[in-house]
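Running this now, will post back.
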Amino acid sequence: MLQVGDVVMQHAADSAHVTRAAIQPGLSAVIVPLHCSGRMPVTNGTTIGAQDAILVPGGMEFIVACPDPQVWGSFALPTAMAEELADLSRDRHRDAMPGVLDMTPEIFGELSAAFDAAGRLAHEAPSALIAPGCAEGLAASLKELVASALAPGLGTEPRGRAVREAMRVVRAADEYLRHNISHPIYRDDLCGAIGVSRRKLHDAFVSVVGMTPPAYLKLRRLVLARRALRAGNDGERLVKSVALSHGFWHLGHFSKDYRELFGELPSQTAAATHPS
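Update: finished.
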């Protein structure tokens, strides 16, 4: 178990079982079956698919039947935060749960990697979270992951006046980013700074930039990570601290994304900048 900001992550393996439980009032939970060795689990009579998740509100009882061993992960977060991240009203949020979230392969892969990384952090390097910027960066990126799981597939094709408004939103976002050039910025930072909803920011970036705000900001964080690697002088520990402080949970995925963008590994950037 690992707590990052207001979100508590759990990552565990269970044998076949039937569980009757309820989430604590005031919290909501996203439960993700990560790997099943045979038949998929059934929750309140609904079979959970291989890339699905279960969304359960605080205080609601649910029954999970796992006919075979499985590895699972979960997020527990304040219900108010879940409602905000899903862009749902309280009534709609309450009526919709418990429910099944049909995630894209990309989102499911990112969640799986985050659970794997959280497990390693909790057991191997819990002190990493007290390093400057690490807890804050990981909390912000985790919040974006949960938002993606709760509300996948957002997107519109604006026309006319909506196109002009989308351009205005992107220009305002770009202005804010240019004035905070040295800091990792996340989706909610942008929403608060320019005064728009998460959905409006999403639609504007998809229509104007051709990618979602988290994807765009991830590229920006990779660029900032490269700058930090060139400025530091602590070898492999530098790579790890730079990744965590820029919101990258999984060092393997960070290295892969970094190499795809820059043509070299983060360790190579650090070594080239500060040869031994």
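The longest strand covers residues 27-36. More later if anyone needs it.
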